[in-house]
Design a protein that fits this description.
The complex is a heterodimer.
Chain A (H helix, E strand, L loop, with lengths): L1 H12 L1 H18 L15 E6 L4 H13 L1 E3 L6 H6 L5 E5 L3 H6 L5 E6 L3 H22 L4 H12 L4 E4 L7 H33 L2 H9 L4 H30 L1 H4 L2 H27 L3 H18 L11 H7 L3 H14 L5 H34 L1
Parallel strand pairs in A: 1-2, 1-3
Antiparallel strand pairs in A: 3-4
Helix pairs in contact in A: 1-10, 2-8, 3-6, 3-7, 6-7, 8-10, 8-12, 8-13, 8-15, 10-12, 12-15, 12-16, 15-16
Chain B lengths: L1 H13 L2 H22 L2 H5 L4 E6 L6 H13 L9 E5 L2 H9 L5 E4 L5 E4 L4 H33 L7 H14 L3 E4 L9 H13 L1 H10 L7 H7 L5 H30 L8 H23 L6 H18 L6 H9 L1 H6 L1 H14 L3 H26 L8
Parallel strand pairs in B: 1-2, 1-3
Antiparallel strand pairs in B: 3-4
Helix pairs in contact in B: 1-11, 2-8, 2-11, 4-6, 6-7, 8-11, 8-12, 8-13, 8-16, 9-11, 9-12, 11-12, 12-13, 12-16, 12-17, 16-17
The chains are: A alpha/beta, B mainly alpha.
Chain lengths: ~375, ~400
């Protein structure tokens, strides 16, 4: 208990940097999931469309109504459209000039102007526009007036193929996608928290004078190390519990399913790995500034290279191959596999189980390395 | 005295390895990580033909043959309009391939084709839309052909050539074109914003150097501060010479980061180089003033002040889009005041305005905001530094 009380005293002394960092990480978590960036559904199935209708004819109204059905039509003022296109809040901007409907009815070939982002969704929106107007033109060519042509077009375009979702279990796909995104982001959070808190506190315990006094004291050295390890485990589990609780609060439906339980287990194993990395960093660091510097490099590096911030499907092949040697890759890969799971079978769980074992292996390796470097420092 | 203090501040700061790391090595490492992570971004977001399977109809009908022929056209690799990479298989195999994520979806061809998918996404939406369009076109062609046959029969032709009429109707429908012009111009890369936030973060990290340089003149911080406080030299001379030395070191670090990102990583900063350099200098000044301000905050220890600068800079960088460019847009749209007060966002937005040529007004608004931010913090810091008295040291 002496070691544990000392541990908590050091934690209390460092409470302001720890609280500041924790508040920053909680803020990151809260704000990230109001945005549309992340894994799971990287692109929405409905393109984001902005329409400026200067015509106000039956044909333009019909086109707008059709696009409203097929796309997410947004109202963005013209002075903000450049930003919207750059950040892909708008993927397709359609401007219908005045007199367009009349010109089309009279058999002319008027031109529509569009602006697109560099995404496949904008191609889809363009295809919808093309399909609607081409159908209207076919009906106009058959001798119909604008109103009849619009009506017949709406009726024709209602024809649709049936869609079957080949998922045996019904899940809230949107929430599942966001939960996956949350747990992938947790890679950065768990690494930062574990390396910073555990790394700094262990570094304080390893201060030369304090360590020498401890060694010549009557305290059993094995007991001392055991208590230190348990103290670290308690703090690390506390960090994990806070973020798991956040996941349960934000994504209750998902966390109540098998997916949620698997996410928790996966993040628990990764948290052990992050804790071991914290041990390792404290063992190799020569100053507290080194701990902070390594925390930033390791947490950001692993997050960017292993698919935590950028979806794995978008990473270059060479980077993905190299990422296999990093623990975060297996954590994020497991999260993506869990998201795709339908029915929980042994075969389906096998790759996830393998990823979990690799995480435990990484944890053991980092523990071993930290013991090696600690012993080396002591001998020196 | 100004020159003497300036020179020795330079020597002291350059000898601090942690400062050299934060201002130079860390940004270079981060820039390399960004480059590795994002180098495939533009290519991967462009359209690639979608992998699907088709289960051929057991009963051959006219509609199912038309449908399969249309899918084959959309899957032709020699066509520019290739939408799918299609292979033909049985229903059971297609189901397994879908479960194994080898295909985005599969179609069972019949008089009423059905689309089978496992999840929602853009590929599945494109698949469904293409199938719907084939059904719609088939429907329109059949209606147009039926109408033409009716007209011909009314005109006294009891045996109209159905095949020919249908072909003409199909040609009329499929060759009908709509003029749509894309006036977008060159598509700019939103990933550039990540590198701009990195530069903005480096600018703000000049706060750690500034704080280091100014804190040695504070009597309650270290012994050197006590000695300089009782000298005959004006405090303003010492503080400004230290601040200038810090600023120059930071500008040197920024130059290295700039040259690395421009020449090695090929990051595009636009064409307005004078404005880019001006923004960088002012951004670095803002970081320096921030560091000097934090240095004067009472009742906070030096390590905690360091943590405060680093934490606030990281939060500011996050809100400016460092961990996802959408964050900057989200904050600008929904909480604009946050980024109006965030110096990292001001610097990032300035680089963005120069890259996208969105207008000089936006750039100068960011520049003046940074100058006002720097001025306010510097004035508060000056009041905090001057004429301090201590009960005991």
């Amino acid at each position: 208990m002496t070691v544990f009380r000392a541990y908590l005293r050091i934690l209390k002394k460092r409470k302001w940097p720890v609280l500041m960092m924790s508040a920053g990480l909680v803020l990151f978590s809260l704000l990230s999931f109001g945005t549309d960036s992340g894994t799971g559904y990287y692109k929405a199935s409905k393109p984001n469309v902005v329409i400026y209708d200067h015509d106000d004819s039956k044909i333009s109204d019909g086109l707008c109504a059709y696009l409203k059905k097929k796309c997410d039509v947004k109202k963005i003022p013209a002075d903000q459209i450049d930003d919207a296109l750059f950040y892909e809040d708008a993927e397709y901007v359609l401007t219908i000039p005045k007199g367009y409907g009349k010109a089309l009815t009279e058999g002319d070939e008027p031109e529509l102007k569009i602006r697109t982002s560099n995404e496949s969704s904008s191609l889809l929106a363009k295809q919808y526009t093309h399909e609607y107007l081409r159908t209207v033109k076919v009906y106009l060519s058959a001798g119909n007036d604008a109103e009849t042509a619009v009506k017949e077009t709406a009726s024709s375009l209602d024809r649709a193929a049936s869609v079957k979702m080949e998922r045996k279990k019904k899940v809230n796909m949107t929430e599942l996608g966001k939960a996956t995104q949350f747990f992938n982001f947790e890679n950065y959070i768990l690494l930062c928290a574990n390396i910073y808190i555990i790394g700094l506190i262990l570094f304080s315990f390893r201060e030369e004078k304090l360590e020498r006094r401890t060694r010549i004291s009557s305290m059993n050295f094995h007991r001392y190390n055991r208590d230190l390890l348990l103290s670290n485990l308690v703090v690390s589990l506390g960090i994990w519990a806070v973020y798991t609780l956040m996941a349960v609060l934000f994504y209750p439906q998902t966390m109540a399913t098998d997916h949620g339980r698997l996410f928790m287990m996966n993040s628990f194993l990764f948290n052990l790995c992050a804790m071991s990395i914290g041990f390792f960093v404290s063992a190799i660091s020569k100053s507290k500034n080194t701990v902070t510097a390594l925390m930033n490099v390791i947490a950001l590096g692993l997050s960017f290279l292993c698919g935590a911030f950028v979806p794995m499907s978008m990473l270059p092949a060479g980077v993905l191959k190299a990422a296999h040697f990093l623990p975060s890759y297996w954590f994020v890969n497991n999260n993506d596999l869990i998201q795709e799971l339908d029915v929980i079978t042994g075969k389906a769980l096998q790759p996830i189980g393998q990823g979990g074992l690799i995480l435990i292996l990484f944890a053991a390796v980092f523990f071993g390395l930290s013991l090696f470097f600690t012993a080396k420092k002591r001998k020196a | 005295m100004f020159a003497h203090n300036f020179l020795y501040t330079l020597k002291i700061l350059l000898g601090r390895r942690s400062l050299v790391f934060w201002t130079m090595a860390f940004p270079l490492i981060l820039a390399t990580l960004f480059y590795l992570a994002f180098s495939n971004f533009s290519a991967s977001s462009q359209f690639e033909p979608i992998r699907i399977a088709v289960v051929r109809s057991e009963e051959k009908t006219e509609n199912s043959e038309i449908f399969e022929s249309a899918i084959a056209t959309l899957s032709d690799p020699d066509q520019e309009t290739q939408v799918f990479k299609t292979h033909y298989t049985t229903a059971a195999k297609a189901k397994q391939q879908l479960a194994d994520n080898k295909i985005a979806g599969y179609i069972i061809s019949s008089d009423q084709p059905s689309v089978h998918i496992k999840e929602n996404g853009i590929e599945q939406t494109i698949l469904k839309s293409a199938v719907d369009e084939i059904l719609v076109d088939t429907d329109i062609i059949q209606h147009a052909a039926a109408k033409q046959i009716e007209i011909e029969m009314r005109q006294g032709n009891p045996n109209p050539d159905v095949q020919s009429i249908t072909q003409e109707a199909a040609d009329a429908v499929l060759n009908e074109d709509v003029k749509i012009k894309d006036i977008s111009g060159e598509h700019l890369d939103p990933i550039m914003v990540e590198f701009y936030t990195l530069l903005a973060m480096v600018c703000m990290y000049s706060g750690t150097i500034g704080m280091e340089a100014v804190s040695k003149h504070q009597a309650n911080v270290n012994a050197q501060g006590k000695r300089t406080s009782i000298t005959g030299v004006k405090k303003s001379t010492l503080v400004f010479s230290s601040a200038l030395a810090s600023w120059l070191i930071q500008l040197a670090a920024l130059t290295v980061v700039f040259l690395f990102t421009y020449h090695v990583l090929h990051i595009d900063y636009g064409t307005h180089w004078m404005q880019v350099i001006l923004l960088t200098c002012v951004g670095s000044l803002a970081g320096l003033c921030f560091g000097i301000f934090v240095c004067t905050l009472p009742k906070i220890s030096q390590p905690n002040k360091d943590s405060l600068i680093i934490t606030l800079t990281m939060v500011g960088s996050f809100l400016s889009g460092m961990m996802g460019v959408d964050m900057k847009y989200f904050i600008d749209k929904n909480m604009p005041l946050v980024n109006k007060l965030n110096p990292v966002a001001m610097i990032t937005d300035g680089y963005y305005a120069l890259y996208t040529n969105i207008g000089a007004a936006r750039f100068y608004e960011d520049l003046f905001s940074l100058l006002i931010f720097s001025g306010i913090l510097l004035v508060i810091a000056i009041f905090g530094l001057r004429r301090q008295t201590y009960d005991s040291l």
